[in-house]
Amino acid sequence: MSSEKATAKPTSEYAVACRDLRHAFGGAVAVDGVDLAVAEGEIFGLLGPNGAGKTTTIRLITTLLPARPGMVEVFGLDAARHQMAVRRSIGYLPQQLSADAALTGRENVELFARLFDVPRSERRERVGEVLSAVGLENAAERRAQTYSGGMIRRLELAQALVSTPRLLILDEPTIGLDPVARDGVWERIQEVRRTTGMTVLVTTHHMDEADLHCNRIALMHRGRIRALGTPSELKSGLESGATLEEVFRAYTGDQLDEPADGFRDARRTRRTASRLG
Ligand SMILES: Nc1ncnc2c1ncn2[C@@H]1O[C@H](COP(=O)(O)OP(=O)(O)OP(=O)(O)O)[C@@H](O)[C@H]1O
C-alpha cells in the first residue's frame, strides 16, 4: 500500500475522468463506451431511466467493477493502478440500504468510521461532526429503525462522509422520499459541498432536483451518454421554455419513477441491504 502511495502522481485536473467505459453482464451490455469528465468541486448529475447503466458506471468509477479495457482516473490517479488510493478518496452512498436498523445512528456511523480506517483518536469527534452536518445530532442515540426515510438517507450520507472523502458519489440519494425529506437531504449535500469544496457525482430520477442542484448533467440511455451540459444548455437545446423532464423524454422516451418513504418502505424500495454496496 505504501509503494502505491509513493507512485501515486496525479495526471489530470479532473475529479473524475473516464474514457471508453464498457461493461457487460454475460451477454447483456450495461455500459457501452462512456466518456465523462467531472470537474473538481462541481455537482455532476448522471441521469437516465431504469437500466440505463448509471449504477454500473458508478461501480466502475468506484473500482467495485474493473474498468479495463476503458480507463478511470480519480483526481488524476489511474483507478486500475491505484485502486486503494482511489477508494480512499471516495465516499459512496449506494442505492441499497446501508444503515443497520438495529443500531443507533451513532453506532451506524461509528461502524463506517472503523471500516474506512478513520484513526481511532479522531473517530469520536469525526462521527459527532458528520451526524451534526446531516442534522441528526439529536437523534444519534436512537435506533435507526425509529427513523423516517429522510433521516435514514441522511444517516447514510453521514456514513459516506465520515472518512472525509474528496469525491462524494451518491446513487439516488433521495430514492423513496417525500418532497420535504428530499429537500432535507439536498440541503445537507449542498451545505457539505459549500463548507468542504467536495466534488459530488449523483444519480437521480428526479429532474427537478437535477435542474436545481446540478452544475452539469449527463443523460444516459442504453449504456451511452446521449446528452451533456448544464441544465440551461440542455433545455435551450430543445425549445424555448422546455423543462429538463421534456429534454429527458426527448432523449429516452421513457417513464420516470416516484417511490414512497419510511424504514420499511426504504427497505422495500431499495435492493437487499448490503453494507458493502
Ligand atoms: N449484477 C448484475 N447482473 C446482471 N445484470 C445486471 C447487473 N447489474 C445490472 N445489470 C443490468 O445492467 C443494465 C444496467 O443496470 P444499472 O443498474 O447500471 O442501471 P441504472 O441506470 O442504474 O438503473 P436504475 O435507475 O434502475 O438503478 C440493466 O439492464 C440491468 O438489468
TrEMBL record:
One of its GO terms (molecular function) is ATP binding. Signal peptide: none annotated. It holds the Pfam family ABC_tran. The keyword Repressor does not apply. It is found in: Cell membrane. Belongs to the ABC transporter superfamily. This is ATP-binding cassette domain-containing protein. It comes from Actinomadura alba. The lineage of its organism: Bacteria, Bacillati, Actinomycetota, Actinomycetes, Streptosporangiales.
